[in-house]
Design brief:
heterotetramer, A alpha/beta, B alpha/beta, C alpha/beta, D alpha+beta, C: alpha/beta, 6-stranded mixed β-sheet, 11 helices, 31% helix, globular, D: alpha+beta, 2 domains, 4-stranded antiparallel β-sheet, 12 helices, 30% helix, 20% strand
Chain lengths: 665, 153, 322, 387
């Protein structure tokens, strides 16, 4: 065995705290180590070729690189050693950066620790064996979870490239958040005018199947071969018959809160969210339906020209096979009412969220595009009042530790500017518009200019400072919302008596995102946003091979960014599925059958049913692990009492040797 | 977090070879805790010096006997860390591990190993700060107990 | 007692003469009349050597496990006490014993005498032990005799027994003996050890395991320890346990046994009784079962349906951080 | 013949401890009597006839390091260089490559090995004649009998050991020394023999090592009465040991009965542990293992036993004695057939420990009276895969 040890300086990242040269020299005393070397940037071209040079010229049969985290460069160096003709699995990485030089200050101690980490890696590399990947065939169909703009974009890109795509959308229509927006910044072009054609394209695309009002119930399998159980929720309407004529909706006597319009208006128990819905199909909200709640009514059944109503309908389950899965589950609006009691907890009618205002501005919205004060709505013989003074408050549920949302929602500054401008155009230029902000984040193309326009052209008054309190008061006979805050630029208290206050409520992960992540075994951060595999190098992949991210499910995004990422994701998926066979990791478990005592504990514990009872020539049964099914977790290995199951790359001997090496007096 | 910064003060201040020089083995899963430790490193979160990490795919891979072996071979503390329940990359590994290590945790004191010398916990890939806190608190406790020379286990 | 003995003989004879089993495992008197040992009876006319008395401590289910039956496909009749039946159930849970090939005679039990407690009382050798009601009379070779109250001689797990009647049996050798209303387990003598300081515990263990001779009696006598020839304690690859026979490795050796039977061992005490140097193995296994019970309310071998504790889990197991 | 007064016993042991380590039967807190290194003040347990284990362990260690070795990397290994590299990694000709490699790497592991054989002088006090005879029987194996292997490790300790035995005043029902040619007052291998009499012990010596112990000043000359008393004690003891089976013809019968199904019957209750062989004063099978970490290692000899299921496992995976009853048969046949054939001596001194310590009380006397006697024409053995 000829081991080569390469110790990285990583510039000063490592060498600043660890004597890379020193431990490289010391490593020469370790058994089987025939070559040691320290390199300034091992991952650089010269660094990698140094390794290859040594492998070839000194006939190294094992390689240890002491540098950064294997999560960073294990793949890189595996390729490097493979390039020099060495099996890539005869390589081990010692993490002396993230786990040492970056977390310690004392040079001598850090150096000592780095050497111990290196020794452990050498002990492990001695135990490694050459491994060869398996190949599995790939299912080329793609599942897109979420039918918002990101999901639609990914689906269309993939479908155009010839792949079969299934969009699973939990609402009755695709469109997501964007479908609820009026205009989009910075172009102020109509949101629906951009989106609805794409929705129709998706619906009509021969390669796309839209499964609306469905949810992913269970996911099994692995990259290239996922098996997904999908639950078709009972709409109480036969969608094959339904023609989306809306008659049921007009005749239905039962009112229900209008979720699509964020509660600004009411809809019916049987409903279609909006006129351009795709698919345009009705569904009954059972909890509001008279028939289901009181056992009488059935008006919809009587009026339906297509005889589509089916009160007996049950949830259905379908199972489908996919090669890749794209998460595009989008976002929800931060529930500010629960957190901002100083803003009235939602009890002040004239304090509304940005999304509510978006609906108000929308021509097909509850007020047909008229800007009104909700407190003056629905009063008999009185027209709703148009606000004369409108105040926008930014960063509600963003950049606010006190409500556990330290992050920036990244879209509020811009949509506030947009809404401020639209307020002028809807309610007249004479409307007083204030924006309370912390900082203006206008980083996108044409964004800064857009904000400037709001301030100059539309004379929107930007006040830098937080609003500490909102409360109602009656000033000269008319009801106002008093906005009390501070102007940090002038350094004085300001108070505005507003007719309408719009909160730029931030973005939070979609409701249920975490539960879904757990079904797919992908990781997520503390706010429920899905975690990318690497923030810079693998921004659209998850840690679970074959599962990708698109749009705001990963982090708050505006439309252009979401769409750009969605197309990037599509490209990644295409890259994956362009192959007919996939190499699977060879770091899997294997049974040494002549030692198996047939206790079947492995069969019991495996989450993937990889171990099977295999009949032997003598008629007895021994455990056998199906290579392509095994995911290499090693649960069976730790459960096997005789230790006759070996996890390649993480053998018990390798682990024990590392422990003993470390504890060696 | 507050605590983390507190314990940070003490981090890495022990000179090598001091009598409270202890050896601590950490066995962590590849997907969550190892990545969490990476995160802590990337964020330059200072940590106690004595922790040495061993990477395995999943806490489900860890045989309680590894911990016992470590103690037998002279470890002064053993830390096991993996994905939070529900987040296991292999969906179930940490559930099996949780049972095994709960039993180990309860048995070790009976076998003459002080409770503070063993801990099993969950640190996700995004919890670098938590990792720092876990390491510093654990190692500090082990240091307080000192080395376990001349112990049978 | 003797009625149970008669019934055992009767059931054994029937099973053998009807050809339902190839051989029948019970207990018989040892060479030393004060000892009872396992008996293997192959024909109905041998059944008279079968005995039942409070010295019948052997857990005969050990002879059902992998590699024990001779021939391997033999149909076997076996006697089980309440505690023995729990190891049998544990074996059946994992299909380590073929239900179809065994005929089980359950013997309701009112406590087994720990012979070692008697022997400790005499320097001389005990050659006869007789029972009259709750009085036990022991006679030595020199003819000295001493009387004991049976209650003082019982095994720890008999004093704390909650399941005196077999869980699993095809026939019973007697009507079930009264069972305690309260099935909450009691843990007998471990509290004393629990009370020691870590250093003291370590010292005690060191003292005990220093004398271990690694004879594998504990492991081979254990009914649920089935690896036998493949036991990882013998294995050099992986080398989980060093072959050096010293206190540390001896302890490690026992840890392997303990953790490999965790969740399947009802602490029947077979290992403890088999140990030639009297290492208190029972203490360790008892503690393990106590903790399992506190953790999960789990008792091994009390239901054919349940899975061994470590081959399953609950999403909401009530421990660990969340 | 000398006399050692009971009250002089501790002083006597103290005297012996002056020159050498003293090992004696001592009762532990758990009431278990074992041979343990003796230290002044420690009570010696002579009432309990047999210590749990024989004294074998102190000459033929259960686990003995007899070789320490280390690998050191020498030669030109480290090529500690800076960051500039022009990679020329194209050497096509394998021979040329090989040459380049050997030229480049002179680093090689050198092995340093050093034998270990500590044999401090020791006195094993309070063992029984059967234990002492056990050593004599084992001597054949390691002592180069008939030009066979001479083991320096065993012999170094054996020579440095003085055996002071005590007559079995009260043999147990499981004792059968007389059956196998021994005696409760046997002198085989005994350097000095104590016999318990009124108020103390008579002391006889049978070798130079034995005479050496007479140097103790606390010894008196034994009175005639004491001498006579000792004789009586011995006679009574011998009378109390039963002849357990007919030794005559055992070897032949074992050979004849090798395939007899009786072996299966007798082995039924055997759990195939190693207890009998490990408590036996002369079972000598051993195993050899290397324990190594980071180039530093020890070669260890540890007891093994023929009941170990993998005792005869071959690297091919084939195991000629996979069947339990075959291993069972081996132990008795070895002691009373194979061994005698090779060394012209039995390998059993009749201490009976294997009987009293067997978890299922398998009785060597029963086995030999059944299988060591003529059997009805051996029926084909019940074949079984049990092991």
């Amino acid at each position: 065995m000829r081991i080569g040890v390469f110790v990285c300086h990583c510039g000063t990242n490592i060498a600043g705290t660890v004597n890379s040269k020193g431990i490289a020299a010391r490593a020469a005393e370790l058994k089987d180590v025939v070559h040691t070397e320290d390199l300034i940037y091992t991952c650089s071209e010269p660094g990698q070729s140094a390794i290859q040079k040594a492998i070839i010229e000194k006939g190294l049969t094992r390689v240890v690189v002491a540098a950064c985290s294997p999560h960073m460069h294990e793949v890189t160096f595996r390729r490097t050693v493979e390039g020099a003709g060495l099996n890539p699995y005869l390589f081990e990485m010692a993490n002396i950066r993230e786990h040492c030089s970056w977390i310690h200050d004392d040079y001598d101690m850090a150096t000592e620790k780095a050497y111990e980490i290196l020794k452990m890696s050498v002990a492990k590399v001695r135990q490694l064996e050459a491994l060869v990947p398996n190949e599995v065939s790939v299912n080329k169909d793609v599942l897109v979870i979420g039918g918002g703009v990101a999901g639609i974009q990914t689906a269309l890109d993939l479908a155009d490239a010839g792949l079969k795509v299934t969009i699973v959308e939990r609402e009755t229509t695709i469109g997501g958040t964007m479908a609820r927006l009026d205009k989009t910044f910075p172009t102020i072009d109509c949101s629906a005018c951009i989106l609805t054609p794409r929705m129709v394209d998706a619906a009509q695309h021969e390669n796309i199947e839209i499964m609306a009002y469905c949810e992913v119930d269970k996911v099994q399998g692995y990259v290239g071969n996922f098996t997904v159980d999908i639950r078709k929720k009972a709409a109480m309407v036969d969608w094959v018959k339904c023609i989306g004529c809306e008659i049921c909706m007009q005749k239905c006597p039962a009112k229900a809160p209008d979720v699509f319009n964020v509660g600004l208006a009411e809809t019916k128990a049987i409903y279609i969210p909006f006129p351009q819905a795709v698919p345009k199909r009705a569904a009954i909200q059972v909890e509001h339906c008279r028939w289901f709640q009181q056992g009488k009514c059935k008006v919809c059944e009587r009026v339906c020209p297509a005889d589509a109503i089916d009160y007996e309908q049950q949830d259905e389950y379908v199972q489908k096979e996919f090669g890749a899965i794209v998460m595009a589950t989008g976002l929800d609006v931060f529930p500010w009412e629960e957190y901002y009691h100083e803003y009235g907890s939602g009890n002040i009618p004239d304090v509304i969220s940005g999304l509510q205002y978006e609906r108000m501005l929308n021509a097909s919205g509850p007020t047909s595009g008229h800007v009104v004060r909700p407190s003056t709505q629905g009063i008999k013989g009185q027209e709703p009042e148009e606000p004369k003074t409108v105040v926008f408050i930014q960063c509600v549920g963003s950049r606010d530790e006190s409500v556990g949302r330290p992050y920036c929602s990244s879209v509020c500054c811009m949509y506030t500017a947009k809404q401020a401008i639209l307020t002028k155009s809807h309610a007249g230029m004479d409307t007083e518009v204030y924006v309370f902000y912390i900082d203006i984040r206008a980083t996108g193309k044409g964004y800064e200019e857009f904000v400037k326009r709001a301030q100059t052209e539309f004379n929107v008054k930007y006040v830098r400072g937080r609003v500490s309190k909102l409360y109602e008061d009656v000033i000269d006979g008319s009801r106002k919302v008093i906005v009390r805050g501070v102007d940090t630029l002038l350094g004085k208290q300001v108070e505005v008596a507003a007719d309408l206050v719009v909160l730029a409520s931030g973005i939070t992960a979609a409701d249920g995102a975490v539960q879904l992540a757990q079904k797919l075994n992908i990781s997520y951060d503390e706010w429920g946003f899905y975690k990318e595999s690497h923030p810079k190098l693998r921004p659209v992949e998850t840690n679970t091979a074959g599962i990708f991210l698109a749009g705001a499910c990963q982090s708050p995004k505006d439309i252009p960014t979401a769409v750009a990422q969605a197309s990037g994701t599509a490209a990644k998926v295409l890259g994956l599925l362009s192959r007919d066979k996939l190499k699977t990791s060879p770091q899997i478990a294997i049974v040494e059958q002549n030692r198996c005592v047939s206790c079947w504990k492995c069969v019991e514990v495996c989450p993937f049913s990889a171990p099977q009872k295999q009949e032997q020539r003598d008629g007895t049964f021994k455990s056998h692990i199906i290579e392509t099914v095994c995911q290499g977790c090693g649960i069976c290995v730790a459960t096997c009492p005789v230790n006759c199951i070996t996890l390649k790359g993480f053998t018990t001997d390798a682990i024990i040797d590392q422990i003993e090496e470390l504890l060696l007096a | 977090m507050a605590q983390a910064t507190d314990t940070t003060q003490a981090a890495g201040t022990t000179p090598p070879g001091a009598e409270d020089d202890v050896k601590v083995v950490g066995i962590v899963c590849n997907w969550c805790s190892y990545a969490g430790a990476d995160g802590a490193g990337t964020a330059r979160l200072k940590q106690e010096f004595e922790m040495r990490l061993l990477r395995v795919p999943c806490t489900g891979r860890i045989d309680p006997l590894f911990a016992i072996k470590a103690f037998e071979k002279g470890a002064d503390g053993v830390l096991i860390s993996g994905c939070h329940p529900g987040d296991c990359h292999y969906s179930e590994g940490n559930y099996y591990a949780r049972r095994k290590f709960e039993l180990l945790d309860r048995m070790l004191p009976f076998l003459g190993v002080e409770p503070d010398r063993f801990k099993y916990t969950w640190v996700s890939a995004s919890e670098g700060a938590r990792w720092q806190k876990v390491v510093n608190e654990f190692v500090t406790k082990v240091k307080a107990l000192g080395p376990r020379e001349g112990r049978a286990l | 007692m003797s009625d149970r003995q008669a019934k055992i003989r009767e059931l054994a004879a029937a099973a053998l003469s009807e050809g339902r089993v190839d051989y029948f495992i019970g207990w018989k008197q040892g060479f030393n009349p004060s000892e009872v040992i396992p008996a293997f009876v192959r024909s109905a006319d041998e059944v008279d050597e079968l005995v039942w008395n409070p010295l019948a401590h052997h857990n005969l289910t050990t002879f059902l496990k992998r590699k024990m039956p001779d021939p391997p496909n033999a149909r076997i009749g076996v006697c089980v006490k309440g505690c023995d039946s729990r190891t049998l159930v544990a074996l059946l849970q994992e299909e380590l014993v073929d239900k179809e090939r065994i005929y089980v005679v359950g013997v309701p039990c009112d406590g087994i005498v720990n012979r070692r407690r008697i022997e400790k009382e005499f320097p001389d050798e005990v050659v006869d032990i007789s029972f009259a009601g709750d009085t036990v009379t022991a006679v030595t070779r020199a003819g000295d005799s001493m009387e004991f109250a049976k209650g003082d001689l019982l095994f720890d797990h008999c004093n704390t027994c909650r399941y005196p009647n077999p869980f699993y049996a095809d026939d019973l050798a007697a009507d079930p003996v009264p069972e305690p209303e309260d099935r909450t387990p009691m843990w007998g003598s471990i509290e004393e050890f629990e009370a020691l300081s870590p250093a003291e515990k370590d010292a005690k263990l060191a003292e005990a395991f220093e004398t271990c001779i690694r004879c594998f009696a504990c492991i081979h006598a254990c009914p649920v320890c089935v690896c036998w020839d493949q036991c990882v304690n013998r294995s050099r690859r992986p080398a989980l346990v060093g072959q050096r026979v010293d206190t540390k490795e001896n302890l490690m050796f026992q840890m392997v046994h303990m953790f490999h039977v965790a969740g399947r061992c009802p602490s029947c005490g077979a290992c403890d009784r088999a140990c030639p140097v009297e290492i208190p193995l029972y203490l360790l296994h008892r503690k393990m079962n106590k903790e399992l019970y506190d953790m999960l309310g789990f008792e091994p071998g009390v239901s054919l349906e349940e899975k061994p504790a470590f081959q399953t889990f609950k999403l909401d197991d009530p421990f660990g951080e969340h | 013949m000398k006399f050692l007064a009971q009250d002089q016993l501790q002083a006597f042991l103290g005297h012996l401890a002056g020159e050498s380590r003293v090992v004696a039967p001592v009762k532990g807190d758990d009431g278990v009597v074992l041979f343990r290194p003796w230290s002044p003040g420690t009570e010696v347990e002579l009432d309990v006839l047999l210590a749990k284990q024989s004294a074998k362990e102190f000459v033929f260690r259960q686990s003995e390091t007899y070789l320490r070795y280390g690998y050191a990397m020498e030669g030109e290994a480290a090529a500690v260089v800076d960051d500039s590299h022009e990679a020329k990694i194209a050497i096509d000709d394998p021979a040329e490559l090989r040459a380049a490699q050997d030229a480049a790497v002179t680093a090689h592991a050198t092995l340093v090995a050093e034998p270990v054989n500590d044999a401090p002088a020791q006195v094993i006090f309070g063992l029984r004649p059967c234990d002492a005879r056990g050593f004599v029987q084992m001597d054949n194996v390691f002592g180069g009998y008939g030009g066979f292997y001479f083991d320096p490790y065993y012999n170094a300790k054996r020579e440095a050991t003085t055996l002071i035995a005590v007559t079995c005043r009260d043999p147990r029902s499981t004792c059968f020394c007389t059956t196998v040619g021994g005696s409760p007052d046997g002198t085989d291998g005994v350097d000095a023999l104590l016999t318990q009499v009124e108020g103390g012990y008579t002391v006889e010596t049978f070798s130079e090592k034995g005479e050496a112990v007479l140097g103790f000043s606390g010894l008196a000359d034994a009175s005639t009465a004491q001498t006579l008393y000792a004789e009586t004690v011995k006679e009574q003891a011998v009378a109390r040991v039963d002849i357990a089976f007919e030794l005559e013809g055992v070897r032949e019968n074992l050979r004849a009965n090798i395939e007899d199904p009786g072996w299966h019957e007798l082995a039924m209750r055997c759990i195939s542990c190693g207890t009998c062989t490990y408590v036996c004063p002369n079972c000598y099978c051993f195993n050899i293992t290397d324990e190594m970490v980071e180039g530093q290692g020890e070669r260890i000899r540890t007891w093994d036993n023929c009941f170990n299921p993998i005792y005869t496992m071959e690297t091919s995976g084939h195991n000629p004695r996979e069947v339990k009853s075959n291993r069972f048969r081996n132990r008795f046949s070895h002691k009373f057939w194979y061994y005698p054939e090779k060394y012209d001596s039995l390998l059993c001194s009749g201490c009976g420990r294997c009987i009293t310590h067997c978890p299922t009380r398998i009785d060597i006397r029963e086995v030999l009276s059944v299988m060591g006697a003529p059997r009805a024409a051996a029926a084909p053995a019940a074949t079984g895969e049990e092991a």
